[in-house]
Amino acid sequence: MILSKQNEPMTTFLKSTREGSILTLTMSQPETRNALTGNTAVEEFVQACDAVRQDASIRVVVLTAEGPVFSSGGNVKDMLRYQTEKLLPDTIRAEYRNGIQRLPKALYNLDVPIIAAINGPAIGAGLDLTCMCDIRIASEKATFAESFVKVGIVPGDGGAWLLPRAVGMSKASEMAFIGEALNAEQALACGLVSRVVAHEALLDEAMMLARKIAANPGSVLRMTKRLLREGERSSLESLLELSAGYQAIAHMTSDHHEAVNAFVEKRAPKFST
User: Fold this and answer.
1) Among 61, 112, 203, 254, which residue has the least CB neighbours within 10 Å?
2) Quick one: CA dihedral 168, 139, 44, 208, positive or negative?
3) By the 8 A CB rule, do 120 and 139 touch?
4) pTM for the whole thing?
5) 153-181 pLDDT, tens per residue?
C-alpha cells in the first residue's frame, strides 16, 4: 500500500495484467485525467520498472490508460500551491529531481521493449511519457501537445531531450514553442506514432504487436533495446564495441542455438527465455 504525506491510503495509479510474457500497465485515474503529479504515479512507475527489470520472463510491456484521456501530464490545479505556499526555487527544483524526473530515468532506461497504446489526449508530461516508450500506437481519438508554454512553464520532465529524438528538432521546436495539439494523423505524419488505428481496436492492435515481439528471445530483446538506446548518444565506434560484446553473449545462448537448429531443420524455434 502506498501512503500520502498524511499517511492516508492513496488510490492505485497503475493496474497491471499479464498475458504470458507480456505485461500491460494501465493508468487508472481517469478522474484526474491520469495526471502524473500530485499522486503516486511516479513512485508506482518506478516500482513497476524495478519489478520488470528483475523479471526475465517479461519480454514486452504495453502502457495504456483508462478513460477518454491518456494522460494530462502535470496536475495544473496542484500547481496553485507554488503561489500559496511561497516555495523557494531550490525547493521546487528538488521536487522535480526527486519527483517527475525519476519517471524518464526509470521508464526510458528500461531494457524491455515498451509499446504505448495511446487512447486519447497525451498532454505535456503525458506526451513526454509516450516518448519514453519505444513504439507508439495511437487511437484515432488521440491528440498530442507539448503544451508547457501554454501554462507558463518549461518541460521539466525531460521533454526537451525526448521529443526531438522522436520527431526531429524542427518539429519538436514548433510543438514546444506553440504548444498546440496535433491530431493522430498529424502525429503519424511527423513520426511521433508509427500507426493510427480505430479507437475500439487500439488494445487489440497493441497486443498483436506485443505478441510478435514476445515471440523472440527475451535476453536478445533486452540487449537489442539497450543497443538502440546507447546508439542515440554514443559514437559509432563505441556502439560497435558494445555490439561485439553483446553479440558474443548472444552467440552463446541456448535460444541462439535453438534458432539456428530450427532454421536448419526447417521448423519453428522454441525459445526458453
Assistant:
1) 254
2) negative
3) yes
4) 0.91
5) 999 999 999 999 999 999 999 999 999 99
Q: What grid cell was written down for 179?
A: 504548444
The sign one gets for the Cα dihedral 132, 166, 127, 196 is: negative
pLDDT range class, residue 273, cuts 50, 70, 90: low
21-62 confidence digits (pLDDT tens): 999 999 999 999 999 998 999 999 999 999 999 999 999 999
- pLDDT tens digits, one per residue of 206-240: 999 999 999 999 999 999 999 999 999 899 999 99
Is residue 4 in some structural domain? no
* Measured distance CA(37)–CA(78) in Å, rounded: 8
Q: Do 234 and 210 belong together in one domain?
A: no
Range of the domain at 159: 14-214
For residue 155, what is the domain's CATH number? Answer: 3.90.226.10
CATH code, 259: 1.10.12
Q: How far apart are the first and last CA of the chain?
A: 31
Same domain? For 208 and 222 the reply is: no
Q: Between the CA of residue 77 and those of 13, 38, 50, 147, 179, what are the distances in Å?
A: 18, 9, 30, 15, 19
